[in-house]
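Project outcomes to date are best conveyed with an example. Our students and postdoctoral researchers have been running inverse folding experiments weekly, and each run begins with a structure described purely in tokens. The record below, which covers 132 residues, was selected by the lab manager from last quarter's runs and is presented without edits.
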């Protein structure tokens, strides 16, 4: 099974432009407790480099693009988030990195929990040990 799982989003666009709705209960597979977004990421700077013990997130580039690298400890998959209807699920215990941010990238993330640093696994060796 692919590590990359996109939400099945129906874009409600018309000739005025695009509209994407992400609705709790219908589209998002968890209760949304937090929303954050990354903007103005400097050229050549990657982010992420962690996994979460419990947190589940969905992420979408509402503007621009970046490349998401997912790793379950056995396999890695790279996928471009380059359209506002490409809403990816980042499951718990998935090491993830974001690379190649475009200057106009706005990466929107919906999260299943409030911020909790103790949920982070920031050491790749620790992550590998836990998923083995
Ligand atoms: P961090 O998780 O290190 O960012 P990334 O993994 O994308 O590179 O977060 C950067 C800083 O922001 C860090 O000091 C923690 C803080 N932060 C919050 O306070 N709340 C949040 O919801 C997030 C995601 C980060």
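After processing, the design step wrote out the following sequence:
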């Amino acid at each position: 099974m692919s590590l990359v799982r996109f939400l099945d989003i129906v874009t409600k666009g018309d000739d005025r432009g695009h509209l994407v709705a992400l609705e709790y209960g219908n589209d998002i597979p968890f209760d949304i407790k937090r929303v954050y977004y990354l903007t103005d990421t400097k050229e050549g700077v990657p982010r992420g480099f962690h996994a979460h013990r419990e947190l589940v997130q969905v992420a979408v580039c509402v503007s621009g693009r970046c490349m998401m690298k997912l790793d379950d400890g056995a396999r890695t998959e790279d996928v471009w988030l380059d359209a506002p209807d490409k809403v990816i699920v980042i499951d718990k215990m998935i090491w993830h990195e974001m690379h190649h941010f475009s200057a106009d990238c706005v990466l929107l993330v919906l999260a299943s929990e409030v911020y909790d640093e103790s949920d982070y696994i920031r050491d790749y060796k620790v992550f590998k040990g836990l998923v083995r």
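The CA atoms of residues 34 and 114 lie 6 Å apart. The radius of gyration is 15 Å. The training component of this project remains on track.
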